[in-house]
Amino acid sequence: LVKGGADMQTFVLHEKIDHTDRLDVGRSIEARPGHRWKVRAEVQAAQLNTNGPERGMLLDFAGLKQCLKELAAQFDHKFIYEEGSLQPATVTALQAEGFALAPVPFRPTAEELARWFYQALQQQGVQPAKVWVYETPKNCAAYFETEDNATNAQL
Fold first, then answer.
1. Count of CB atoms situated within 10 Å of the CB of 94
2. Comparing 2 with 147, which gets the higher pLDDT?
3. For residues 8-30, b (16+ Cβ closer than 10 Å) or e, as one string?
4. Predicted confidence band at 136 (pLDDT cuts at 50, 70, 90)?
5. Is there a contact between 86 and 29 (Cβ–Cβ < 8 Å)?
């Protein structure tokens, strides 16, 4: 993202997600208790805006914060599960019990959620440099796309 030693401005924002999920990890299906994940989004640019109300800024902090908050709200205090991984009767029973559900078309891992947030920010007009999803304060997954061919890389 930073090439040739060019000076870069970096903007980092964090948002949290309280949730639970269900993963089949090969040994057994784990119904995990609640988690607090942190989403970290980084935006970079070679220079700050030079005109208008965002002069001297990389971008409008409040706008990016609101965007990330709205994206995180789709999962906050919800049961995240992969579409098709639960029996329809189970989904119906959870809904009848008042569970807030967030079905996703991928396994709800930190790696996949980092990719989802990256692409969702792009769809909102934000060009993230990298997005991290922290499962714990010491463990995270990151997603970014290379400049050469926009392929993805996961850490």
1. 15
2. 147
3. eeebebebebebbbbbeeeeeee
4. confident
5. no
HEC profile for 80-126?
EEECCCCCHHHHHHHHHCCCCEEEECCCCCHHHHHHHHHHHHHHCCC
Beta bridge partners of 33: none
Dist CA 41 CA 65 (whole Å): 10
pTM confidence score: 0.78
DSSP state letter for 76: T
Q: Distance between CA 123 and CA 42 in Å, rounded?
A: 16
What is the total residue count of the chain? 155
Alpha carbon distances (Å) from 78 to 4, 65, 75: 43, 21, 5
pLDDT above 60 (res 10): yes
State the amino acid at position 7 in one-letter form: D
Please check the confidence at residue 82 and state whether its pLDDT lies above 60: yes
Identify the pLDDT of residue 32: 55
Strand partners for 12: 42
Alpha-carbon separation of residue 83 from 18, 80, 102, 147, 151 (angstroms): 20, 9, 9, 32, 25
